[in-house]
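2024-03-11 09:14:02 DEBUG pipeline.ingest accepted 1 chain
2024-03-11 09:14:02 DEBUG pipeline.ingest length=189
2024-03-11 09:14:03 DEBUG pipeline.predict start
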Amino acid sequence: MARRPNAVAGRTSKALPLQPVQGAQGPGLLFWLALALLILVADQLSKWLILGSYVQHESTVVTSFFNLVRVHNPGAAFSFLADAGGWQRWFFTALGLGAAGFIVWLLRAHAGQRLFSFALSCVLGGALGNVIDRMIHGYVVDMLDFHWRWLEPVFPAGHFPAFNLADVAISIGAAGLILDELLRVRKTR
């Protein structure tokens, strides 16, 4: 191990490992924000294509278990609060913007933690994609409709609630955050 002078007594001592500068061990904040922007653009492009090609509730069968559809969701996940009278639009917009600010702060503080930052970027891009929908349209545009017979006891005709690319990114991000925490706990044992 390298030796360096001891400033106090003029002697040499073993060098202490240097702590990495924030972001030095991985991509920095701008990389993670660019990833979130890429997710946001892909989400908004897919919604733009659906809005330009389909009328509400129109669908196209793609496979025996998947349809493309245009559905408007004024609520949150699984249409939570969809019939709440309109206030939910601004509540979920404010919640999404607040979460986005918090996520950017976390990314700035932990940009060197790859899995954690990847997960946060996915959540950020997805959350902002849905916030834009709420601000522009008053609802979120959903288009991915999966359906299986085994879901019939839970969902009408076995159709899982329609969702979009933003929701996919948020789900990937949530799974990444759980995995990151499990790995962190395992590492500390």
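2024-03-11 09:14:41 DEBUG pipeline.report Confidence is low (pLDDT under 50) at residues 1-13, 15-23.
2024-03-11 09:14:41 DEBUG pipeline.predict end
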